[in-house]
Amino acid sequence: MKKKSIIIVLAVLLGGSSAVNAANSFNSIDTSITSATKQQPRLWFTIGATGGMMSGSMPSQNLYGSSNATGIIPTSGVTGGSYGGVTAGFKYFFGKQRNIGIGLGVLYTSMQANLVQDSFHIRYKETDKWGSQFAQLLTVRSGNIKETDNLQMLSIPLTLILKIPVSEKVTFELEPGILYNVSLNSKLKSESGVYDLEAEYDFTGSSSIPVNGGNYFNATTTSNAWLITRKQAVAHGSTDGGSAYLNTLQSQGFSVGSMVTPTSTNNNNTFKAGTIGFIFKPSFIWHIGKSSNLGAGMLITASSYSQASSNYRIFDRNMVYNSIFGGVTKMNVVNVGFTISYEHAIF
């Protein structure tokens, strides 16, 4: 009121009603701007959905633990995948213009990953059904192992929000921030793999007949070893590549077999909680009402996860297949997709 009175007095002194009208118009515009600024809400509740493509890498694997394993196991890879998710949270803006703020919420993501483990041959220490230690030989006969898994991820995003006006009804928002990853679980959906299981019992310094609980493992093959292998069977006249020999001994309880497939699977794995990731969300916001907004944009997240896998076997002597994720000690996941949201003002 004081500001208005001073302007009107000056207008009268300077020359009449037209100046007074101009002063009133100026005051009206000033009041409208101030009123509009006060009407911009500070706190918003937001919900949304997201979906797109996921990619992953597993730079660290421990497929056969600390079991004196020898051989070459190529690193597994995620050949492709997709994700979908939902998010909910709050946005709070500072200052008169409400153009800088922070966001806090929850992000739930469901991902489908397609994994490939290249063919390998490995030799490692194993224990048979009678408690005796021996050298287990495992060979992938199917060319490679293909696996499809579903991953469930729960994260808490904390973002800095920069709002840039585009028009009266549209603003552009940039949201960089961090993710606190609460949990990541994987569940095997399908796998394909065919294997040969062979064995070596080394009788150096012992009788040539295994006894329960004996130690017949040797890091290398010696002349005193009992070889339950395809090569040994062929050398002694096998005409089917040693398949019958391996399968006969399998029926007697030995951990061997020709072209075997899993009798069961171990599907579930849990990665360590509490890792930190990154999130970036550029989006356009449409103001559809005084207290309602719609948003659409991109969502990019990147996180790393780890777990311990000291005694993992991708395929064990009981013919149980264990998901590749069980042997991954470190994994990187990147999701890139689109997001849509609805926002409602609280105050």
Explain what this protein looks like in three dimensions.
Helices cover 15% and strands 55% of the residues. The protein is mainly beta and 347 residues long. It folds into two domains: 39 residues; 304 residues, Porin (Beta Barrel), CATH 2.40.160. An eight-stranded antiparallel β-barrel has the order 1-3-4-7-8-14-15-17. Strands 2, 5, 6, 9, 10 and 11 form a six-stranded antiparallel β-sheet that branches. The chain is elongated, with a radius of gyration of 33 Å.
Task: Give a short overview.
This protein has 347 residues and is mostly beta strands. It contains four helices and 17 strands.
Count the E strands.
17
Instruction: Determine the CATH topology of the largest domain.
Output: Porin
- Give the proportion of residues in helices: 10-25%
What would you report as the Rg, rounded to the nearest angstrom?
Answer: 33 Å
Low-confidence segments, given as residue ranges, are 1-20, 22-38
Please report the number of helical segments: 4
Fraction in beta strands:
over 45%
- Spell out the helices and strands N to C: HHEEEEEEEEEEHHEEEEEEE
The side-by-side strand order for the widest beta sheet comes to: 1-3-4-7-8-14-15-17
Tell me the domain tally: 2
CATH class of the largest domain: Mainly Beta
**CATH architecture heading of the largest domain:** Beta Barrel
Which structural class do you get from the secondary structure elements? mainly beta
Largest sheet descriptor: 8 strands, antiparallel, barrel
Average per-residue pLDDT, rounded, comes to 86
Give the termini distance in whole angstroms. Answer: 27 Å
Shape: elongated
